[in-house]
Design goal:
Blueprint lengths: L1 E2 L2 E8 L4 E6 L7 E4 L2 H21 L18 H13 L4 H12 L2
Antiparallel strand pairs: 1-2, 2-3, 3-4
Helix pairs in contact: 2-3
């Protein structure tokens, strides 16, 4: 779900029979609960505003920092195939994988 330009993951919690939203990419927690989509949007806006206001008051960075680096574990066979395909396309393995990830992200 996208709320005010921020992505949130939504899961159903059967114990309380409500949906739970959690904003992604924030340095702290800003979750929200509601029984339906309209409620999620409303509660999400409120939760996000409270979180961002708190960060501003406390001079805190609201978003996680990402280095742009991560380790990827593949089987040796998949690794070899990826290198061969990247090379055949005239690309580094890093560029090939970065493009594949970018293509899969909505």
């Amino acid at each position: 779900m996208l709320i005010d330009g921020h992505r949130a993951a939504i899961l159903y919690d059967p114990e309380i029979e409500m949906f739970r939203g959690e904003f992604l990419g924030l340095a702290g927690g800003a979750d929200f609960y509601a029984p339906d989509v309209a409620g999620l949007k409303s509660e999400g806006y409120k939760s996000l505003k409270v979180y961002l206001d708190m960060c501003k008051e406390n001079n805190m960075e609201p978003y996680k920092a990402y280095s742009g680096r991560f380790n990827l574990r593949l089987s040796p066979e998949l690794h070899a195939s990826a290198v061969a395909t990247a090379t055949a396309r005239g690309k580094s393995l890093n560029k090939f994988i970065a493009e594949a990830i970018a293509e899969m992200i909505d």
